[in-house]
Design goal:
The protein is α/β, with parallel strands linked by helices. It is built from 19 helices and nine strands. The strands form two sheets. It has a seven-stranded mixed beta sheet, sandwiched between helices. Strands 8-9 form a two-stranded antiparallel ribbon. The longest helix has 33 residues. The relative contact order is 0.09. The site of 6-phosphogluconic acid has 12 residues, from helix 8 and helix 11. 6-phosphogluconic acid binds next to helix 8 and helix 11.
């Protein structure tokens, strides 16, 4: 037994790493685990079952020795410098043909640099987005792999075994070369930010506008989750309102500080979207609102200085609640549409060759943004006439059109009550702009040409034109 060789190695045995190891072992794969912190190695060994073929290693050298060649090693360490540190320490033990996998939320440009540096040494490098948190890692995440196809084919049976399944289909697909997997995961998280912001806005309108208590909120979100809105994020939202804080006996939600943290993936999505000139306003606003939430002391000071309108709603509450659900569904479609449009353009620029139908398919299960709506989105990308934008799909365009009055009414009410709903506002403005054949950008062209001679194009003649605007 002493010289038994294991199929795959895991570096980083925190919550995600440990649970992925156990998931792999459940499916009959043999795994060596390593962590700089010996207590994490011990925690893994505690958690393994008799049927599992899992062993811990106390040094990197021992870890590498226990692996069958060519080696397959996955890293589950925090994004950024820790990934480079692990690669640096590991490199002396690796050989050409070995496969290294980064399963963290790494910035896609870092993944490209790392994979190029490792390719020059003959080492295959996969950047794999993994979504689903602890529960997903243990029982079936959504996996978004990118990198050399040859590397993916090597771990494909393992990935297909551990991934979440929807109607028997594993939530994993080879997405493309280089950083394709990490790019897709980044956009997944951008969409996640957008959806969370929209849900939070429905909460605000119902809490501060309708004075609903946590039981009522629980019931509404649970009911919504039985409809077209069905999604993991609504499911957990409903549960959140029921949770009691053991220290105070109050609902936990009411003792949680209203400042939202972030690790940066939503911001990266917006940054990339700006760079590629793809509008993603709902995601941008979601990032901005997380940022604004952290200015708590300033908000508190200003709240003492100024007043908005009194948040007293005089209409029919059940009607507003119904409109909120329609607005949320429209907002969800518009958020996914922005993320998918970004993927469409990034795929061209970075030559990922993304199959958006496959992306929608692997997001249907295991991941944080899984939702019934993804079946519709997947269907929209099926066939040879896949649209370049989701709103070009008649069913999805119709779904937003049918709910645009809800969106307008919700925004109208929120504006009157002085409640901020920037996610809904951005979503509606995106819809109104994107569906407009004419936009006032002609004026912007004229202004640019006026002050900077930047030239403009005409609707009736080809070419570029400049006018001396100040001449009579
Ligand atoms: C997932 C999550 C996961 C993580 C986010 C949280 O798909 O499982 O997106 O990756 O929870 O990174 O992001 P923030 O800390 O930025 O909210």
């Amino acid at each position: 037994m002493g010289d038994e060789r294991y199929e795959v190695g895991m570096i980083g045995l925190g919550v995600m790493g440990r649970n992925l190891v156990l998931n792999m072992a459940d499916h009959g794969h043999s795994v060596v685990g390593y962590d700089r912190d010996p207590s994490q190695v011990a925690a893994l060994q505690q958690a393994v079952q008799a049927s599992h073929r899992v062993v811990g290693a106390s040094t990197l050298e021992e870890f590498v020795e226990k692996l069958a060649s060519p080696r397959a090693i996955m890293m589950m360490v925090p994004a950024g410098p820790p990934v480079d540190a692990v690669i640096r320490e590991l490199l002396p033990y690796l050989q050409a043909g070995d496969l290294l996998i980064d399963g963290g939320n790494s910035y896609f440009k870092d993944t490209d640099l790392r994979s190029q540096a490792l390719a020059s040494k003959g080492i295959l490098y996969l950047g794999v987005g993994i979504s689903g948190g602890e529960e997903g890692a243990r029982h079936g995440p959504s996996l978004m792999p990118g990198g050399p196809r040859e590397g993916y084919e090597r771990v494909r049976p393992l990935f297909e075994a551990i991934a979440a399944k929807v109607h028997g289909e594993p939530c994993v697909a080879y997405l493309g070369p280089g950083s394709a997997g990490h790019y897709v995961k980044m956009v997944h998280n951008g969409i996640e930010y957008g959806l969370m912001q929209l849900i939070a806005e429905t909460y605000d309108v119902m809490k501060r506008g309708l004075y609903l208590d946590d039981d009522a909120l629980h019931a509404i979100y649970a009911r919504w989750n039985q409809t077209e809105l069905q999604s993991y994020l609504l499911e957990i939202t409903a549960q959140i309102f029921r949770k009691v804080d053991p220290h105070t006996g109050k609902r936990l939600i009411d003792v949680i500080l209203d400042e939202a943290a972030q690790k940066g993936t939503g911001m990266w999505t917006s940054q990339s979207a700006l760079e590629l000139q793809v509008p993603t306003p709902t995601i941008d606003l979601a990032v901005a609102m997380r940022n604004l939430s952290t200015y708590k002391s300033e908000r508190t000071a200003i709240a003492r200085l100024v007043n908005g309108p009194s948040p007293h709603f005089s209409g029919e509450p059940s009607l507003l609640i119904q409109q909120l659900s329609g607005a949320l569904y429209a907002g969800m479609i518009l958020t996914y549409a922005q993320g998918m449009a970004l993927l469409y353009h990034a795929s061209g620029v970075y030559q990922y060759g993304l199959n958006l139908e496959a992306v929608a398919r692997i997001w249907r299960g295991g991941c944080i943004i899984r939702a019934a709506l993804l079946e519709e989105i997947r269907a929209a990308y099926q066939g040879r006439q896949a649209p370049s934008h989701l709103l070009l799909n008649p069913r999805l365009a119709r779904a937003v059109m049918d709910r645009q009055e809800d969106l307008r009414n919700v925004i109208h009410v929120a504006v009157e009550l002085g409640l901020p709903v920037p996610g809904f506002m951005a979503s509606l403005a995106y819809w109104d702009a994107y569906r407009s054949e004419w936009l006032p950008a002609n004026l912007i062209q004229a202004q640019r040409d006026y002050f900077g001679a930047h030239t403009y194009e005409r609707i009736d003649e080809k070419g570029v034109f400049h006018t001396r605007w100040e001449e009579a």
